[in-house]
Amino acid sequence: MIISQLIDNETLLRVAEKETASDVWAALRSMHVGGEQSVDDFTAKFTTLVGRICELGDAMDEKYVVKKLL
């Protein structure tokens, strides 16, 4: 995917679980546009942490991740 070559590793971790290029673009757009930047920043840091944990081989249940995020 060409998109993955154009974004930094932290952003890549945030969009790695998206199914389609359209979903990736929508996620990138929401990360970089709009007035919800502080919420997006927190979500970005949280999602990056979850991505790094998963990279280490620890499986995390999606319901658990959503509960912690909310």
Describe the structure.
The chain is mostly helical and 70 residues long. The protein has one domain. It has five helices and no strands. The mean pLDDT is 81.
Global structural class = mainly alpha
Residue share in helix: over 70%
Pick out the low-confidence regions.
none
Shape call: globular
For the biggest sheet, the summary is: none
Termini separation: 31 Å
Order of helices and strands: HHHHH
Whole-number mean pLDDT: 81
Rounded to the nearest angstrom, the radius of gyration is 12 Å
Share of β-strand residues:
under 5%
**Number of beta strands:** 0
Essential attributes:
70 residues, mainly alpha, 73% helix, globular
Topology:
Layout (H helix, E strand, L loop, with lengths): L1 H5 L2 H7 L5 H12 L4 H19 L6 H8 L1
Summarize the structure.
The protein has 70 residues and is mostly helical. It is built from 5 helices and no strands. The chain has one domain (2-69).
